[in-house]
């Protein structure tokens, strides 16, 4: 079973289990997202077209990460005038895993497990760096742990200071 949904001014053909990159959506990784604006439902030869949306149809997805997309370069030039300008842009996008498509009395669910590992870490693993993209935290030194576990000794009492000699006139 597949559906055509509309989000971010664009239309996407999805089915359960698809990995989808859309315009930025609000939410934390692991959050559930429901798309109610389903334009079309299909299963084999049977197709249900909405006017403008299919009543009761819902596509559910899980938010995996929000990240910046690929870099786009904007280059302007006027020949023989010495005019050149370069600008760049990176659009914010959200990665989703479609978990279910429901509507017209039918439902299609995805049975897999959702991995919330961001693309940065997957790319680092592909380059053979392991989890090098994860911020490194310095573990506490073992000597400091031993000192914290040992009982503390009391400090010896301080001796009383001798009185200052009085000045004679």
Automatic annotation (TrEMBL):
<keyword id="KW-0689">Ribosomal protein</keyword>
<dbReference type="GO" id="GO:0005737">
    <property type="term" value="C:cytoplasm"/>
</dbReference>
<dbReference type="InterPro" id="IPR028909">
    <property type="entry name" value="bL21-like"/>
</dbReference>
<keyword id="KW-0687">Ribonucleoprotein</keyword>
<protein>
    <recommendedName>
        <fullName>Large ribosomal subunit protein bL21</fullName>
    </recommendedName>
</protein>
<dbReference type="Pfam" id="PF00829">
    <property type="entry name" value="Ribosomal_L21p"/>
</dbReference>
<feature type="compositionally biased region" description="Low complexity">
    <location>
        <begin position="158"/>
        <end position="169"/>
    </location>
</feature>
<dbReference type="GO" id="GO:0006412">
    <property type="term" value="P:translation"/>
</dbReference>
<dbReference type="InterPro" id="IPR001787">
    <property type="entry name" value="Ribosomal_bL21"/>
</dbReference>
<dbReference type="GO" id="GO:0003735">
    <property type="term" value="F:structural constituent of ribosome"/>
</dbReference>
<dbReference type="GO" id="GO:0019843">
    <property type="term" value="F:rRNA binding"/>
</dbReference>
<keyword id="KW-0699">rRNA-binding</keyword>
<dbReference type="GO" id="GO:0005840">
    <property type="term" value="C:ribosome"/>
</dbReference>
<dbReference type="GO" id="GO:1990904">
    <property type="term" value="C:ribonucleoprotein complex"/>
</dbReference>
<comment type="similarity">
    <text>Belongs to the bacterial ribosomal protein bL21 family.</text>
</comment>
<dbReference type="InterPro" id="IPR036164">
    <property type="entry name" value="bL21-like_sf"/>
</dbReference>
<keyword id="KW-0694">RNA-binding</keyword>
<comment type="subunit">
    <text>Part of the 50S ribosomal subunit. Contacts protein L20.</text>
</comment>
<feature type="region of interest" description="Disordered">
    <location>
        <begin position="143"/>
        <end position="169"/>
    </location>
</feature>
<comment type="function">
    <text>This protein binds to 23S rRNA in the presence of protein L20.</text>
</comment>
């Amino acid at each position: 079973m597949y559906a055509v949904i509309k989000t971010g001014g664009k239309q996407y053909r999805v089915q359960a289990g698809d990995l989808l990159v859309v315009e930025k959506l609000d939410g934390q990784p692991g959050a559930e997202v429901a798309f109610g604006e389903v334009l079309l439902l299909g299963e084999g030869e049977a197709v249900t077209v909405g006017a403008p949306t299919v009543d009761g149809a819902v596509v559910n997805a899980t938010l995996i990460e929000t990240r910046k997309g690929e870099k786009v370069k904007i280059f302007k030039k006027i020949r023989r005038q010495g005019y050149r300008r370069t600008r760049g842009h990176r659009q914010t996008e959200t990665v989703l895993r479609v978990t279910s498509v429901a509507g017209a009395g039918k439902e299609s669910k995805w049975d897999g497990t959702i991995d919330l590992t961001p693309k940065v870490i997957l790319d680092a693993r592909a380059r053979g760096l392991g989890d090098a993209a994860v911020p490194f935290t310095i573990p506490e030194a073992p000597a400091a742990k031993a000192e914290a576990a040992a009982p503390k000794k009391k400090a010896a009492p301080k001796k009383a200071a001798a009185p200052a000699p009085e000045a004679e006139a």
